[in-house]
Amino acid sequence: MTQRLVVIGNGMAGARTVEEILARNGDFTVTMFGDEPYGNYNRIMLSNLLAGVETEEGIFLNDLSWYQENGITLNAGVKIARIDKDSKIVIAEDGSATPYDKLIIATGSYSWTPPMKNVHNPKRGYHQGVFAFRTLDDTRGMIRYARDHERAVVIGGGLLGLEAARGLQNHVSHVTLLHAMGHLMERQLDPKAGAMLQASVEGKLGIEVVTNAMTTEILGKDRVTGVKLADGRVIDCDVVVIAAGIRPNTEMVANSGLPVERGIVVDDQMRVEGEQDIYSVGECAQHRGNLYGLVAPLWDQAKVLADHITGTTEVAYTGSKLHTKLKVAGIDVASMGLIAPEHDTDEVVVYNEPKKGVYKQLIIRDDVLVGAVLVGDNSKAASLIQAFDRGTPLPEERAGLIFDLGGAVEESAEDMPDDAQVCNCNGVSKGAICGAVADGCKTVSGVMDKTRAGKGCGTCKPLVQRIVEWANGGAAEEDPAASWYVPGVPMPKPELMAAIRKYELKSVSSVFDTLVPGAQHDAKSKMGLASLLKMMWADEYVDERDARFINDRVHGNIQRDGTFSVVPQMKGGVTTPAQLRKIAEVAEKYDVPMVKLTGGQRIDLLGVPKEKLPAMWADLDMPSGYAYAKSFRTVKTCVGSDFCRFGVGDSTALGIALEERYQGLEGPGKMKLAVTGCPRNCAEAYVKDLGVVAIDGGRWEIYVGGAAGAHIRKGDLLTTVDSPEEVIRLTGRFLQYYRENANWLERTYSFVPRIGVDRIREIVVEDSDGIAAALDAAVEEAVQAYKDPWKERAEPATPGQFRTSLPLTVLPQVPVRS
Amino acid sequence: MTISAIEKTVIGSIDDIPLGEGRTFTVEDEMIAVFRLRDGSLRAVSAVCPHKGGPLADGQIDNRVVVCPLHLFSWDLATGCSQSGQPPITVYPVRVDGDLIVLGE
Ligand SMILES: Cc1cc2nc3c(=O)[nH]c(=O)nc-3n(C[C@H](O)[C@H](O)[C@H](O)COP(=O)(O)OP(=O)(O)OC[C@H]3O[C@@H](n4cnc5c(N)ncnc54)[C@H](O)[C@@H]3O)c2cc1C
Ligand code: SF4
Ligand code: SF4
Ligand code: FES
Question: What pTM value is reported for the model?
Answer without folding.
Answer: 0.56
